[in-house]
Design brief:
The chain contains no helices and twelve strands. With about 160 residues, the protein is mainly β. The relative contact order is 0.35.
């Protein structure tokens, strides 16, 4: 899926959800990031996504080498990990493009947030909304390509 400049968007995989222990992964390529250093990434645990009591967790990265983990419950959001710089993230190149492989590994007790095969954050699974729909999320005015958005069951 490729999205070019527009409002904030959450793109749900309405035909697929994930529950229990699983790994959600996606390749996120941000283009023209020099225009706006906003985030794009993956979203999971989506429930009532069209309603007033929607809940989900999201994991975003920027071309500046930062990541964010945040949760939404109805009309409020909670920052689980503020925008944080990390060496695992690929920064934008001379063409203002940055590609990062993101993953969320939901375990029985711990959920790991991974960029380019390196853990950048973890949280107790019980503290997160993890069961539900999954998809992609981006902040306004970005040109982003999402590839290989896949959830696989983990033992």
């Amino acid at each position: 899926v490729e999205v070019q400049e527009g409002p904030n968007a959450t793109l749900w995989r309405r035909d697929a959800g994930a529950t229990g222990t699983y790994r959600l992964s996606a390749r996120v390529t941000q283009r023209d990031t020099g225009l706006h250093a906003h985030g794009a990434g993956i979203v999971f645990g989506g429930r009532d996504v069209d309603g007033e009591s929607q809940t989900y967790t999201y994991f975003l990265v920027t071309g500046e080498g930062t990541f964010l983990v945040k949760a939404r419950s109805a009309t409020s959001t909670t920052i689980l990990a503020p925008w944080t710089e990390h060496a695992a993230l690929n920064r934008e190149n001379a063409e203002f493009t940055a590609t990062n492989d993101l993953a969320v590994e939901v375990g029985a007790t711990t959920t790991r947030f991974i960029v380019n095969d390196r853990e950048v954050h973890s949280a107790p699974t019980a503290s997160l909304q993890t069961d539900g729909l999954y998809g992609c999320r981006l902040v306004h005015d970005l040109h982003v390509k999402f590839e290989s958005v896949v959830a696989t069951v983990r033992p």
